[in-house]
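Ticket 4471: requesting a sanity check on a complex prediction with magnesium ion. Repro inputs:
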Amino acid sequence: MKITKLEPFILHVPVTRQGIADSTHQISHWGYPGVIIHTDTGHKGYGFSGTHAELAGDRIIVDFITNVYGPLLIGEDPRATNHLWQKLYRHPPSQWIGRAGISHLALGAIDIALWDLKAKEAEKPLWQLLGGSDTKSVEAYNTDCGWLNWSFDELVSDAKDSVERRGFPGIKMKVGSPNPTTDLKRIEAVRKAIGPEIKLMVDANGKWDLNTATRIGNKFADYDILWFEEPIWYDDILGHQELAASISTPIALGEQLYSADAFTAFINARAVSFCQPDVVRVAGITEWLVVADLASAHNLPVVSHVGDMMQVHLHLAQSHPATNHLEYIPWCRKAFVEPATVESGFFVTPQEPGAGTTFSSEAFEKFNVL
Ligand code: 0YR
Ligand code: MG
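Returned structure tokens:
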């Protein structure tokens, strides 16, 4: 099998309900700048990054995919994922201007498309190709009930509805308000509404400084918070190390880390308890597997960041021993041929060959903005 053509696209899919906000982002659409990789066997691989749908930025990602990496891929066997990842990542001119940011998101889109192709050619869902079993149950937790722009009442009723009617065994809520005591009041009300048995996580999306995170983080134990996610600036290893040593709630992070090197540094510093790699950020499935193995070797759980990349992360959760839980964010599920689905708190095992990244043709007609 050989790569014959790269076909770029940019889909901007409106997020469900009203636009959402956390402490740092406001989103009305999810962006999928990506690529369809064509082959001489007729198989097509779908891969994409995940963005906040700023068209100018998405165009640069797609430009990098087609014009910088594209020529390095034509004629190659798409199943050689390790070889191709290294070829692109260490391509000297790209390495000089890359290794994170736009070039890395571009590499991620390509790598995901290659894995999709590899699984489609093998006629297996990706989790099966990676050694997974459908006897494994991946537990879901709902993030799409705890946004920071939800009013107090909306937040409490949405949290209650998620667990009582919809059966989620866990939920995550956003914190990082300008006045952190507001967050504590919201946490207290949510814990009261959902009862003591449900897993409750909080996510500050990197907003606070170390003093605030320590002061507020010390109160989380009163509400049995399973993890405190992105408490402070993403790259501050020593800050997270100090925080982890001074509060009892475990730290979760990783959605903003670009490499296994970065995870190694946080893990070695004992600055992280729950590793949250995202295939978008770490340039694809190839490096995600390195990070998950690394976490596994340190006996740390992996709970992928979903953003809205749920389908592909479900395949990885279904197959990797370090991961048993996955975030549920349903904004764009309807755009996919096989949307990730939760029943009674657990994900349904995907069955279609591939990595779960194939969009429906209607999604292309409706949402392609390139
Ligand atoms: C903004 N999950 C997150 C939104 C979410 C973000 O990208 O998606 O709140 O990805 O932090 O853990
Ligand atoms: Mg997060």
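Notes from triage: The pocket of 0YR (ligand 1) is lined by residues 22, 25, 27, 143, 203, 205, 255, 305, 307, 327 (CB under 6 Å). Leaving this open until the requester confirms.
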